[in-house]
Each structure stands twice: as C-alpha cells, then as structure tokens.
Amino acid sequence: MIPYGRQDISQADIDAVIEVLKSDFLTQGPKVPAFEEAVASYCGARHAIAVNSATSALHLACLALGLGPGDRLWTTPVTFVASANCALYCGASVDFVDIDPRTYNLSPAALEAKLEMAEKEGALPKVVVAVHLCGQPCDMKAISKLADKYAFRVIEDASHAIGGRYDGEPIGSGRYSDITIFSFHPVKIITSAEGGMAVTNDDGFAEKMQLLRSHGITRDPKQMTHESDGPWYYQQVELGFNYRMTELQAALGLSQMARLDDFVACRHELAGRYDELLSTLPVITPWQHPDSYSGLHLYVIRVAGGPARHRRVFELLREQGIGVNLHYIPVHTQPYYQAMGFTAGDFPHAMEYYEEAISLPMFPGLSSQDQDFVVATLAKAMEAS
Ligand SMILES: *Cc1c(COP(=O)(O)O)cnc(C)c1O
C-alpha cells in the first residue's frame, strides 16, 4: 500500500533518540527546551511550549485565552475533530464557519457575515480557530481585522503548515494571531512520533500553557502564593494536566527540524509534478495562493460527478493499493456534533467539498514511479466510474 502520508526517519534521527535513551533524562531534560528553542527561532516567535500532541496544545491554547463555560469557539467544519473538540474540553460551545470553495479554508466572507449576525444576537465568539488546511495559510489578514473589530482571539491550527510562509513570514510568527499550534504526528510535516507545540509572542499565554501542561505545578517563587517552605517545595496553583513531551520525542523532533525546509521543498516538487501529470485529467487540482508558501501536508484533488462516482473512484484506488484518504469528514456531520443540533446542510460548501475530495499520496520519499502509478490508476478509475 502506498500511504497518503508517512514519516521520513534518517540515521541522524535514530542516533538522536538512542543518545537520549543512554542519557540521564527520558523526560524533563534538556531536549524539550532545545526543541522548543529551535521551533520558536524558526518561526520568529518569543515562546514555544512543547506538549504530547497538537490536541493538547489546542486545549492549553484555549485555556490560556480564557475560554470557558458560556463562551463560544468557531472553526471550520473541514478539519480534524480536534480543532473543535478543544472548545468542549473547556466547557465552551462550538460553531462552524463555512469554507471558501477555492482554498477550502475558513471563508473570511462567511465569517464576517456570521459575526454581524452574532453581534446582533449578543452571541459573538471568544476564540476562532483558523486551520491552514493542507498547509495553505488562511487569509489571516482578513481574519485578524475581524478579530480586532469583534474582539475575539485567534488560534492558528497549523498542524499541516510548519515550514510554510504567509505574507513573507514563517507560519507561527504570530503576527496575525494569538497562538499557533503545530502537530508532529508521523503523517505531518515533521514528526516526534506523537507531539505538538504551541507558539506565541505573549508572555502571559506562554506562562499559563507551561503551567497547565504539568499539573498546574510551579517551582518558580514568583508564581507562588507565599514564600517557599524549603528546597523540596512546589505549589499547585492551577488545575493542570500531564501533557508533557518526552525527551525521546523532543530529540526526534529536534533532529527532524534540521530537514524541515528540505521536506517542504520536496513536497512542493511532488505537488508540481502532480499538477503537471493531472493537467490532462478532469480533476480540480489544489489552488495555491500566490502570496503564500504552503507546507503542503496534503495534496487534495476534487473529482466531480456526484457522491457515488467519487466513492467508486476512491474505492478503485484503494483496491490498487493506493492509500488515498479524505481530509476531512466535515466535523458538524459527526454523530457527536449532530447530537448538538448541527445538520449536514448547515455548511453547504463543506459538504460539496466532502463529496469530491480525495487526498493523494504526498510525502518525502514518494518515488516518481509511485506517483506515475497513482496518476495512471486515477485516470483508469475515473474512466471506469
Ligand atoms: C493532526 C491534526 C490535529 C491533531 O494533532 P495530534 O498531534 O494528533 O493531536 C489537529 N488539527 C489538525 C488540523 C490536524 O491535522
């Protein structure tokens, strides 16, 4: 099976992990801060907080932004469920904003229209999660303008987008948002096996996320309510979690950072090759915003002709050993969300996308032969469907 995505592990990555195994610290040692420093400096952000997944990073980001019961978080329906679930962890509610039919990202126009309505109803969101689908940055300038006007906070879910650029700056620079989160799951652009990171320029948000990732416990006298009882002393000042990243994960992530730019360049080469090979087929290839540089986590094509044909093409590809996938089943159609009252028709562009989208294999290490085979098989599948 040719997967849709997979990790690329070098001997240097393996050596970095083995070195940690032989060292004094398997957790809470020097590798986590080193990985954080590498990501923060790559992004040009003041702080980076490593955690055990992007899901945990989203949770901590929401808490740092003060999201709680009675508050609302809005995001796109075309994302992984974690982008929405983070609100529910905080006792807040979730709503969605339909996508832009060209970029598949949250539509700033739909956001503006929904904000106007919400203002009248006194139901504005506290946080909007902008997901850079496939690695292509959202229209952050437009979203940030609306954030100023309607006083909401912005989290960039950049799980697909590390190594990408928006408006000349690295994703994660934080120019147009409060907190950006990354995922290091093996299918993503770089990996730490499991792992995630939150980056921010705000000292207060960073301090809060650092505290909450480790039980809400501090050893910093400045954060304590009274003077230390002695050298053993720590205080729990918040209800936190154990969301810590291990040293093994951080060593792997840090080692992978050295190849981040190569990984993304390689993804661009593959995408360019797909664009060319697919130009004669009746499929919609990904539109790339000319002012941004996508992380290109995913290469999503659209196959028209209705849901039955889409499904048939998908099945034929899988039967031929091509691990195509669909990113994503619109979150509002999940049973858990339907139980909250969402119906499929609420976000029509998201549903149109769902009825046509197919993620083709896209990862460094995908060979030209495999890519040719994917396209040839797709051509046959489309002819047969
Ligand atoms: C992968 C992903 C997540 C969750 O990442 P984990 O590190 O697996 O928790 C969240 N949002 C998006 C858009 C993702 O693709």
Please give a structural write-up.
The chain is of the alpha/beta class and 385 residues long. The protein has two domains: 2-257, Aspartate Aminotransferase, domain 2 (3-Layer(aba) Sandwich), CATH 3.40.640; 260-384, Aspartate Aminotransferase, domain 1 (Alpha-Beta Complex). It is 39% helix and 13% strand. The chain has 13 helices and 14 strands. It has a seven-stranded mixed β-sheet, with helices on both faces. Strand 2, helix 4 (82-89) and strand 3 (93-96) form a beta-alpha-beta unit. The longest helix is centred in the last third of the chain and has 19 residues, at 260-278. It starts with 10 loop residues before the first helix and ends with a helix. The mean pLDDT is 97. The structure holds pyridoxal-5'-phosphate. Pyridoxal-5'-phosphate (PLP) binds next to helix 3 and helix 4.
